[in-house]
């Protein structure tokens, strides 16, 4: 049997503390899980920053009184909380027991941040266009021809160093459209008695290098459609090497 003396010895909560504790118990009864702090603030209709701080301050005090358990960003009611709380609340936000209020440590921003829910997440990475690179062997800048003595290229690869492709404002690469040729290189292979002029061969090789570099950059930026184009360009490069005869 509960006497009036037992009731007087119970903890008397302030209005905000009682509101927060009621929200924790009510939400926990419905979900049987911990109550997220953001849900608890919505339950208390805490829209302004000052009201949200009152909810957090009340949680700090409820946790100190061992009436709730805070795990991460979820709050659980402590077992036996009902037997320890006075049925009546105080008329203001301060506890009626002034000695307890004097001993209560101030809630500093650091302690509030341990209860404040994280808003948003990690910032999304910003995709930037790839920086154009020159030739490491002959130190030729982007958009310029390789040096004649460049050891990194042979007669097939000699040509202009491809410049950086045009990139949209958000940094996403665009796949090149499919290219159809009326005839393949095999139709003018030297074995059939037709010789490719060196100037035409060098132009084809330089154009192929440009398309190949653009396709590689598109694929590296996550454009999956560029994978099929890469395979087609690699096969075309092998045909160019065979047609050039290694000259």
From TrEMBL:
<feature type="region of interest" description="Disordered">
    <location>
        <begin position="86"/>
        <end position="140"/>
    </location>
</feature>
<protein>
    <submittedName>
        <fullName>Uncharacterized protein</fullName>
    </submittedName>
</protein>
């Amino acid at each position: 049997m509960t006497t009036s003396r037992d009731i007087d010895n119970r903890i008397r909560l302030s209005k905000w503390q009682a509101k927060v504790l009621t929200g924790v118990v009510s939400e926990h009864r419905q979900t049987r899980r911990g109550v997220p702090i953001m849900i608890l603030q919505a339950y208390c209709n805490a829209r302004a920053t000052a009201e949200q701080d009152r909810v957090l301050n009340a949680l700090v005090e409820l946790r100190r009184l061992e009436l709730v358990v805070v795990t991460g960003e979820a709050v659980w009611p402590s077992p036996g909380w009902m037997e320890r709380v006075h049925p009546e609340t105080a008329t203001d936000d301060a506890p009626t027991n002034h000695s307890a209020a004097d001993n209560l440590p101030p809630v500093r921003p650091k302690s509030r941040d341990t209860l404040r829910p994280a808003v948003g997440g990690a910032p999304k990475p910003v995709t930037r266009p790839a920086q154009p690179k020159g030739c490491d062997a002959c130190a030729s800048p982007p958009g310029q021809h390789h040096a004649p003595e460049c050891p990194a290229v042979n007669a097939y690869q000699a040509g202009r160093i491809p410049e950086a492709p045009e990139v949209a404002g958000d940094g996403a690469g665009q796949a090149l459209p499919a290219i159809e040729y009326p005839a393949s290189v095999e139709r003018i292979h030297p074995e059939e008695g037709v010789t490719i002029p060196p100037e035409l061969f060098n132009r084809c090789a330089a154009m192929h290098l440009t398309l190949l570099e653009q396709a590689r950059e598109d694929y590296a930026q996550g454009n999956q459609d560029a994978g099929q184009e890469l395979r087609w360009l690699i096969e075309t490069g092998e045909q160019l090497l065979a047609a050039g005869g290694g000259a």
